[in-house]
Amino acid sequence: MSVLKPLALFVKHDGHSSRASVTCRYKCGDACSHEVPNNSSGEYFRDIARTALTRRGVLRGSAMAVLAVGAGSALVACGDNDGADGTGSGSGSGGDSAAPKGTDFQAVAPNTEDVVVVPDGYDSDIVIRWGDAVLPDAPEFDFANQTGDAQAKQFGFNNDFAGLLPIPGEPNSFVLVVNHEYTTEPFMFFGYDEENPTEEQFRIAIAAHGLTVVQVDGESGSGRLTPAFGQYNRRITGATEFVVTGPAAGSDLLKTAADPTGTKVLGTLNNCAGGVTPWGTILSGEENFNQYFGNAESVTDPVVAERLSRYGIKGAASERKWERFDPRFDIAQEPNEVNRFGYIVEIDPWDPQSTPIKHTALGRFKHEAATIHITDDGTVVAYSGDDERFDYMYKFVSSRKMQSGDGQAAMRHNLTLLDAGTLYVAKLSGNSEDEIDGSGKLPSDGKFDGTGEWIPLLITHEDGRGESLVDGMSAEEVTVFTRLAGDKVGATKMDRPEDFEPNPKTGKVYVALTNNSNRGTEGKAPADEANPRSNNKNGQVLEIDDDHAGTKFTWNLLLVCGDPEAADTYFGGFDKSQVSPISCPDNLAFDPHGNLWVSTDGNALGSNDGLFSVVLDGDRRGETKQFLTVPVGAETCGPIVTEDRVIVCAQHPGELDDASADNPMSHWPDGGDSQPRPSVVVAWKKDGRIGV
Ligand code: FEO
Ligand code: CA
Ligand code: CA
């Protein structure tokens, strides 16, 4: 199923995200219907920002030394770019050249099918689905009789990020690592009683969170991948032991009755997007962790209450009522457990016995992911967005250098790279701010663009000691309440920064800004050049040219998403009659040719969510084509695009507001009258490699 010009054929203009309210409740604790947690005044804090900048001067010598190397690497890396200004030359162009490698497919039209739709000439299959065996002794999935013990050996629920690592010495075999972001209990159990969940349902849900590590084997002549019981297979759940590193390790803020050391945490929760590191590990972001903790309203200390509120932690019972079964989820009984979530976690997928790590030097917020750029001297730059309306963009620059080689000594060293360095938050300025009126009208210079700087918040020294660069906050406070540090230095409030990914081919960095319906509303931050639309339903994609290890950058908006026929959309200057509608960009990936791929969450244009290719350079810059759509009610996550295959995670299929396990409205992937099951999907070109 495909059309040449997939324009607004199925577009309905109700102006709302298509995400079901049940998805909002279980995925992010209804973040978008609650009051925005960021009530800070960026303007008010300008003076404090100046103080921070002055203090940063102390660092300038060492920072500049690194910058010199970083800038050199950027120039070399960008050598095959076209536009000297970094924004291409596609203004108003329909593109006369042939489709760039990797994008030579017929776009899939917007649709509301209950299947995965791929372009003509492509095939697709399921790799693994919720409940499939990961460990050899996993029992067969039995929807009506699921147990926590079974779930801990099976593929978890609501797959989000996916990473695919070739297994050395085994051609066509891979380790697939997948995040399981959240559970949606009404779709997991018949007759689920939201007020009275059972203890076994709690145990199943804990085990359905976390990550899966599973071997997958390729098939000769196709892109199909089949799970195998390999030596690396592992389930990490909401109960697996993690070690805490960085400035918050051992802090009083992290000590609990069960862990008086403040260094050992059970589990990882709400793992959204992630990244594969150049040293062969997986980084995963703990995102909407706030929703798992009950009884925040019992807190009377105003300082603690403010900290909880800034992270959206309020009220009495939590959605899933876990606090009834384990006191660590009850803030009245265990006030510090919540401070032990909201970090970037690192998994060594090559050692199933390894203890995964929570890296606190990267700060605590609703981490969408962390993704890595390595400068020429081996410095590690980790980018991470805080996915909340009006929250911030961050990066961490390591003081240690990556060691190459695949030996154990190199891995041991590289697992400490994120434990020493500097954490920054982004502040952006537009060069046409006086023309920004919230309508999305392109400024007279033809671009939403400007400059920015990285404001340092926290240095983590070689010995693990933290040093605060924020007046009035200790190092522990900056580490654990990083959002408050960002507030104090006047960081730029963004429209939900989700995936934040460096392009391995050019070094440019891209950020998906999903949407922000509160932008420009009463009492909230107005539109600015980087977030140029009030009541932003469709989101935008930001392109950054960063001095990776330094503190300056330039930026522009690559895409202002939505219906291409609408005046407030922009596709990198490309002819808007030649592009696919795209709404709510979420996850980003790059193919081997350097094209950007964008998956969407909550399409506000009436179509199912999908995966899109976006050309970045040349006269087709901005050309956006839909490669696939996921089934009804689902979100497209975790894209991986190689020359051999495209992988996506279809998260929460069938999650529509009147649906449940008792009334399924999707039967994907197994058809008939089956329950919908979140699944990993692989697509491939029937007669050759993608675009080659
Ligand atoms: Fe879990 Fe920000 O998406
Ligand atoms: Ca401008
Ligand atoms: Ca996401």
Characterization of the model:
With 692 residues, the chain is α+β, with helices and mostly antiparallel strands. The protein has a domain at 66-239 and 561-692. The strands form six sheets. Strands 13, 14, 16, 17, 18, 19, 21, 22, 23, 24 and 25 form an eleven-stranded antiparallel sheet that branches. Strands 8-7-12-11-10-9 form a six-stranded mixed sheet, with no helix packed on it. Strands 2, 3, 4, 5 and 6 form a five-stranded antiparallel sheet that branches. Bound molecules: MU-OXO-diiron and calcium ion (2 copies). One calcium ion binds at residues 430-432, 443, 445, 447-449, 529.
Summary, kept brief:
It contains nine helices and 32 strands.
Number of strands: 32
Low-pLDDT stretches? 1-15, 43-92
Could you estimate the helical fraction of the residues in percent? 10-25%
Q: Main sheet, how many strands, which sense, barrel?
A: 11 strands, antiparallel
Radius of gyration: 23 Å
Number of helices: 9
Spatial separation of the terminal alpha carbons: 21 Å
Spell out which ligands are present. MU-OXO-diiron, calcium ion
Strand content: 25-35%
The residue-averaged pLDDT reads 90
What features would you highlight for this structure?
binds MU-OXO-diiron; binds calcium ion; eleven-stranded antiparallel sheet; six-stranded mixed sheet; 692 residues; 32 strands
